[in-house]
Amino acid sequence: AIRNPYKLDQNLSEPSLGLDVETEFAAFVEAAHHLGLRVVVEFVFRTSSKDGDWVKEHPEWFYWINADVRDRDPGDNDPTRYGMPIFSETEITAIEAAVNRRQFDHLLPPDIMHRRMFLPPPTPEQVKMENGRWIAHYENGRKGRIPGAFADWPVDDPQPPWGDVTFLRLYDHPHYNYIAYNTIRMYSKELAQPENIVQPLWERIINIIPHYQTMFGIDGAMIDMGHALPAELKQAIIAAARRQNPNFAFWDENFEATEKGVAEGYNAVIGSLPFVLPKPTELEEFLIHLARQGNPLPIFGTTESHNTPRAISKTGGAQFVRFGMAVAAFLPTLPFLHCGAEFGERRPVNTGLGFTPEEIAQFPSHTLPLFSGMAYDWTGDETELVSWWQQTVALRQQYAPLLTDIRKDSFIYLYTDNAAIWGIIRHNEDWSLKLALLANQDMAKAQRVTVGLPTGRQQLMDHFTHTFYEVQGNQITVTLDPGQTIWLEL
Fold it and tell me: Most-buried pick from 113, 180, 430, 478 (CB within 10 A)?
């Protein structure tokens, strides 16, 4: 819910310093650079807060609906109230088929009741702030308000409208003056034409990152829901940033690393590791994919994100966290530590992805750090996770040229005679350097395995515990504790 993307919220400043927030942020970036760190900022380009500064200046950049229309409540499907358009099962099937075929000239619009809620944009003179929200006063006496955004895909998402944020009106076309999946994400072909671009809005968006580069010297950006922006707008955003700094980094908020992401200029992608790590079958599929196809971009090597359950809440607790950290560091990933994971914080930041209805009820939004103030549980007893992470990162750094190689030719998936234990081999081009990781994904029981490894050594040492294992006929036999991983140089 960004009120003005060109300004920092003064509430972020530290009052005791007596400095404005811009000075504090500039000092933060400068200090990070002195420490050899680069600063990446997340930017939101598709939405604005409903009380945003741009509304009065440019009401035509926003959608407007009849002020008398009420929002739907959770679980409500009343078509006379505002929310995500309601489609029948037959229509949903047709919409998904058209999107999957990339046939954006065959996208079903929402029903007429939804479309008739929307009003043409008012003039700036017609817009007034009333009781904390912008209200449009039309000449015919009708009043308009700015509608909330909603989860626009899939088209049957059950979430009610969001109260704090709205979608920006990136295209202007009289037939598409409404919010739906085909106007703010999939973009019907008739709408997404050059002559329909709201050019002044696009230019304002394109210049946001260069503003922060000039003012503060930031080094990179993650674009919130970048995959839902028009491709031409995203390309212009990236090009403008790289004109100022050719090495400016971009992270893709997406679950898959694709060649499309490479072509669009991304350096890394968030990826799916937090979702597959606790699921043995999905993790195996993911690792086999890496071995067969590689990844065109590094993904984030993390056990959790701000939208997922905390890793320590998974089966195995702290042992699962150690398991996940070790696996992530061994893969061709960008090791990423989500704040709080290193000491076992249990409260999620947001219940956005991977939560059951019971868990969502356990953590109402007003108790979540994404929406309210909260202190971390610094008194937790999982302090050994800090040393584990330090040890893991040190190992990663020791073998960085090998472990950062994203080519499929550097990666072998090892099948074993025990389904609970799998292995990975990483090797350089001439096989002069080889590493193996063996992992017990059973978080409840110790497991034993005998596995063949391409080594001429008579002993192999686990880098975590410094335990030695005898090699007999190119095979080792090991018993791994629940969730244990071992790193071996072959």
Answer: 180
> Would you give the distance in Å from CA 463 to the centre of its chain?
32
User: 156 exposed, middle or buried (CB, 10 Å; 0-12, 13-18, 19+)?
Assistant: middle
Helix (H) or strand (E) holding 99: helix 89-100
Determine the 3-state secondary structure of 268 from DSSP: strand
Cβ distance 403 to 455 under 8 Å? no
Distance CA 286, CA 437 (A): 16
A 10 A CB-CB count for 80 gives 10
The residue whose two tokens read 């904390």 is 132
Mean pLDDT over each residue of the chain, to the nearest integer? 92
Question: Considering just the CA atoms, what is the radius of gyration of the chain in Å?
Answer: 26
Token output for 433: 């350097």
Report the distance separating Cα 98 and Cα 100, nearest Å. Answer: 5
Between CA 267 and CA 333 the distance in angstroms is: 11
CB atoms within 10 A of CB 448: 13
- Which strand (E) or helix (H) includes residue 328? helix 318-330
- The pLDDT assigned to 257 comes to 86
| pLDDT reading at 408 higher than 90 | no
Token pair listed for 269: 């992608």
The model carries a pTM of 0.85
> Which has more pLDDT, 244 or 294?
244
Strands 475-480 and 468-470: unpaired
d(CA 486, CA 462): 5
pLDDT band at 361 (very low <50, low <70, confident <90, very high): confident
Please identify which residue in the block is written with the tokens 């954006």.
104
Q: Which residues contact 282 (CB under 8 A, 6 or more apart)?
A: 275, 276
Report the Cα 436 to chain-centroid distance in Å: 30
